[in-house]
Amino acid sequence: GQQVMQIPQYQHVQEGEDFTTYCNSSTTLSNIQWYKQRPGGHPVFLIQLVKSGEVKKQKRLTFQFGEAKKNSSLHITATQTTDVGTYFCAGRVGNYGQNFVFGPGTRLSVLP
Amino acid sequence: NAGVMQNPRHLVRRRGQEARLRCSPMKGHSHVYWYRQLPEEGLKFMVYLQKENIIDESGMPKERFSAEFPKEGPSILRIQQVVRGDSAAYFCASSPLAVRVGYEQYFGPGTRLTVT
Question: Is B56 exposed, middle or buried (0-12, 13-18, 19+ CB in 10 A)?
């Protein structure tokens, strides 16, 4: 079955440092979504990427979708303590499939 | 427009009892998804429902688990004869009518189930 992997599992950074998490799929994805979950909270949608090679930015966050549509990355510039949480990617196979497969997440800690 | 609502937020059950988890999707959303999350793990898809129909239950254990989304009222995830391994956070998400290329899922606050 389809597998979605994320690395690293954990990342500890000093406030102000950059952070990147990588998402890799065993199969080609029709689109990919990123979610953030704060400790004790629920996943919150961040962004969706659809096109091969697509790059989207949200303030300090940059999202990329690989050319082969099998990998994606989330980069945070100059982390802040409010960035703390677990970042999940979720990939969908096929245009009519209804289910997203979530990666295991990358847990980010930001030290002040 | 209220978000996705789940209740109860916390549920404690003894082994062998039944657990009923409720999810009210956002207004106008007719697609509901249930996920299970173990501590410090990712989200595992369980079941996808539209009004009165189960579309995909491939992630749901064959025994003891069932889900419904009636014409009126919330979606319900039911776990019979709970065991300690059922202890987890159960999240419900909803989305509007599916479009061709992806859609955003809005998650509820989750129900934390503890089996003692």
Answer: middle
Residues of chain B contacting residue A99, judged by C-beta atoms under 8 Å apart: 33, 45, 48, 56, 58-59
For chain A, say whether B40 makes contact (Cβ under 8 Å): yes
**pLDDT for position B98:** 57
Nearest to A64 by CA among A8, B9, A56: A56
- Smallest CA–CA distance, residue B95 to chain A, in Å, is 11
Residues of A in contact with B40 (CB under 8 A): 107
Those residues of chain A that have pLDDT short of 70 are: 1-2, 93-99
> For residue B19, what are the contacts with CB-CB under 8 A and spacing of at least 6?
B11, B13, B78, B79, B82, B86, B113, B115
Asked if residue B8 has a cis previous peptide bond (ω within 30° of 0), the answer is yes
Alpha helices per DSSP H over B1-116: none
Q: Is pLDDT above 50 for B82?
A: yes
Contacts of A44 in chain B (CB under 8 A): 107
Written as six digits, the tokens of A12 are 């500890």
CA distance A104 to chain B (A): 4
